[in-house]
DNA sequence: ACCTGAACACCGTTCAAGT
DNA sequence: ACCTGAACACCGTTCAAGT
């Protein structure tokens, strides 16, 4: 039999990563294993190791591939508008690949595309006149919000327990009147929709943050105490 | 031979969870496997399934055990002080178990101790006079910060690459002057220390957030547009 | 009740070999 | 160069059995 089925060109890193992204899109990150991916590529698992350092490198490469889809933004408006635009661009790119959220949170970042996005934001702040020090703190303050997502606080449907069998008894909603009030209110406010408008929550938090930074900056912020 | 070594009382859930927490403290979360944990308890893996629903339930239980260490706080000061105190208490509890950060981010939360902490914060806000709606948005705005940590932006040592073999070339620091400036500045500012004072970054972000919320609240905030 | 043994269907990764 | 086979040391979880 032929060394590779006739029509199949040899693998390369880009092909492997693209297939992995597609597989994760279709079946979720948990479906990403060297063996499963190899199957999808019609290849033996070990063939992948020629193109990808191992599973960690594969995942980094997948995040990399997604982040490379972030388009460049026009340099218009003040630093706040530019930061906002860059973050929302990242949000759109990542939104296509829901698994990428967790992957970014999990991975020990600093691949080129990751650094490029952070560098882009840092430069918006610095060009806007923020001090290096303030910029540093603000990057931390934004946290994962720089990627266009906030951590999921109420993972799909507030306090109601799901089907997962667990030894601990499922919680009694009556024990959490505050949380209950919040989700009832949110549901009442948007009849027929899911309890939580993720886009709204995200921009609310982002704008809150950016406004607070602007206030600090224009007030001539300089490194302060604020210790634990 | 005896059914169990003489001195050993039968396992129960609390014992299993405590052993798991201890194992994770000592060897990291990656060391947590049913088999490894069973070894540590001198028991066959399947024995654990009598006390713990499975690996997911084990991890939820571990987080639960850590969060139960959060002490109750005195109800003094305004809502801002109370929220701050509750969050810093969570921070201290989780700080003892570094693996718990990632576990909380990863887990699909809503176990009783998780809900209890959120409920506590929600009630501080509501008792402080914030609307249910504002409280909801603010909980999202705080995000994982409610647990006393912010996501790691620069995972130990900024743009320098680590030893992990990867196919992609390690990034050139010259490509990221902004990030470089930030970490150089941070290092210069705290000679001899690590580039980043995590406590400072955390409180900076937390206070920025709480101040912004207070400003919104006293300005009579009511649900606004802020769409994407 | 609580624990065990053997088994199933998976993992990531190595090494030496094939073409 | 690029891919394969066989093997190693792991996983979580099931089921039927032991005491």
Automatic annotation (TrEMBL), chains A, B:
Keywords: DNA-binding, Transcription, Transcription regulation. Transmembrane segments: none annotated. Gene3D superfamilies: Homeodomain-like, Tetracycline Repressor, domain 2. It holds the Pfam family TetR_N. Residues 157-176 are annotated as: Disordered. Residues 33-52 bind DNA. GO terms for biological process: negative regulation of DNA-templated transcription. It comes from the Bacteria. InterPro entries: Homeodomain-like_sf, HTH-type_TetR-like_transc_reg, HTH_TetR, Repressor_TetR_C, Tet_transcr_reg_TetR-rel_C_sf. The keyword Protein biosynthesis does not apply. Signal peptide: none annotated. Residues 10-70 form the HTH tetR-type domain. GO terms for molecular function: DNA-binding transcription factor activity; transcription cis-regulatory region binding. PANTHER family: HTH-TYPE TRANSCRIPTIONAL REGULATOR RUTR, TRANSCRIPTIONAL REGULATORY PROTEIN. This is Putative TetR family transcriptional regulator.
